[in-house]
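Risk mitigation, structural track. In case the binding assays with calcium ion fail to produce interpretable data, a predicted complex structure has been prepared as a fallback.
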Amino acid sequence: MTTRTNIIVVSRKKQQGPVKKVLRPAQLVFVLGMGLTLMGCGDGSDGTVSAQQGTGTAFVAPTVFQAAGPNIASIQNTVDQYRTALGATNNGNTPGPLPKDSGHREINWDGGGNVDTTTAPVTPFNTFLNTRGAQFTTPGTGLSQAPPSGGPQGGLATLFNNPTYGTIFSTFSPLRLFTPVDSNITEALFFEPGSNGTVPAKVSGFGAVFTDVDLPDGSGPANTNGNRKASTLIECFGTDGALLFSSFVPASPGDASLSFLGIVFADARIARVRITSGDAAPGPNDDGTHDIVMMDDFLYGEPQAIQPIP
Ligand SMILES: [Ca+2]
Ligand SMILES: [Ca+2]
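Fallback model:
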């Protein structure tokens, strides 16, 4: 059994692809206190970075929030701080347009209470398209909400025909999690709430809770348990399609752990989010060859209409 920890110390944000060259020490993220929190700030003030992905735009570093550990308490403070950074008020199902600083939106996949049904996989997943301004898609069969096990359809354990899924995953918000089926990719687009998907929008930040992120596990340079390779990733793209920021989600080896990664910019500039949850589509056992990961709460800034280019 791997020793569990709720301490996540990140010395340097990992960048993906073309943005790798723009990494600067100012982007270092430190964890203070009991390992529950962090406030990471890239200054982004010198703005000297050259073009990335041909956009010609300077790299702007978001503030990064992340935490991981064995239980809800491991990430609760960080999630709460992230809510405050987005705008503390949860705007729920209130129709827009609302100002950026009016608050944020959340999705907990719980059906408003103790709902334990397993929803059939569907893509696009439009349950919250009109009410909260977010649409989710996957290249797989679809996206489902389900408890780890139980309920009339049996939860994830039945959906993926793997009884171990009933115990290796836990919820941040009970009773349900969210997952792609036949894929480990989920994409999000944003719209002005109340527009039923007719007004494309951008958000200042996006964050998500994950359960059972095992990699990297700190097992060293050998091939033990997948070595140090990370499994779970959030990528954020701007209105021009360029990658704004990407980072791996912190791991907490051990079954049913919880992880959180959220970023926030000073302005609304994220038009699309791509999430890679685990290093394989759900179905196989979670072991040394597969790190299977499920998603829980999504949090994002109040969607702001993307103004058409004149
Ligand atoms: Ca939930
Ligand atoms: Ca896992």
